[in-house]
Amino acid sequence: MYPNALFAPVRFLRPVRAFATVALTLIALTSVASAGTSAMRLLYRESWSWRTVYEWNAVYALLLSPVILLFWVLHLLTGIAFVCWLFRARNNAHAISPGVFHRYAAPYLVFGWIAPIANLFVPKGVVDDILTTSRPGGLRPGTDLYRGRRSGLVWAWWLAWLLWTVLETASMALGNADLTVLETVALVVCVPLPIVAGLLAARVILTITNLQETVRADLTAGAGPRGRLGPPVGSYLGLTTLVVRDYDEALGFYLHVLGFELLEDTPLGDGKRWVTVRPRGARETALLLARADGSEQEARVGDQTGGRVGLFLHTDDFARDYEHLLSAGVVFEEAPRSEPYGRVVVFLDLYGNRWDLLQPADVSPAYG
């Protein structure tokens, strides 16, 4: 099995709003609690020392320890709820944009928050990928998320979160060091900042949740993007092999003439390559372009099916694609014809393999 977009996980599209509701509720409570804690420390910093509370050496610690414990438990529950929502949203993003690999594997959804250095950028990257791949219609299989444009909303949320975390930690350290002025500045900023970070986090969650629920609603109404989402069958045809004379020669035809997209081109050693292509927008079956190895396979190039039409290229706009192939110099064996099953014409690829260009009778033209 080769690690390429063709083998990205096939997932079910599942409800996500309940997870979002729990996460939003806890984020709201945590934001208010954090802002209130900073305000309390700012107003009453002269009457008791925050350091005393953490050193557990005064009656203040005994009185406030249950409150502090509840405060951190609330933070922990919020983190758990947010990560649970992330897992469900990421699963749905895979269903909406199958064949698109996210930049970070599933364990990063948990460990990305606690691993030093990585926690400065991994969580943002995880959320960016989920948002990018959740839009109705999905992304083309094989889309490189490293080159994608990043959301300004996610940037704003992440910067607010980082600033809040840094200032909250700094205010503790400054209080213990008796640096009153700097502590005051940090606390003043830490009063509104958790509210801002919480509102931005809520906006991110709602944006992704609404996008995914829109896709689910479209599917329920039978108008899903390209009609291909929803619970997949237990198995499907992933690849079919086409024997070719030369990898680059074949790619020149399938990419630049037929307009397919390249899914993978991986060297295997000894001059062999794992080359897969697929029509743009397709979600399942792809072609494995296999260079002939030996005289027996070379004799099969262009005639794998004994002269029969062996490959069927479906289209949602016959006239558009027929004119495109005609202008690209593709050889047609006949004039287009109408059959009970749809509009069809036979054409040849560069090796002489016979293809049907077919618009099924139950598919309406996408244009005009």
TrEMBL record:
CDD domains: VOC_like. Keywords: Membrane, Transmembrane, Transmembrane helix. The chain crosses the membrane at residues 58-87, 153-173, 185-206. The keyword Transmembrane helix applies. SUPFAM superfamilies: Glyoxalase/Bleomycin resistance protein/Dihydroxybiphenyl dioxygenase. Residues 236-360 form the VOC domain. The keyword Lipoprotein does not apply. InterPro entries: DUF4328 (IPR025565), Glyas_Bleomycin-R_OHBP_Dase (IPR029068), Glyas_Fos-R_dOase_dom (IPR004360), VOC_core (IPR037523). This is VOC domain-containing protein. It comes from Streptosporangium oxazolinicum. The lineage of its organism: Bacteria, Bacillati, Actinomycetota, Actinomycetes, Streptosporangiales.
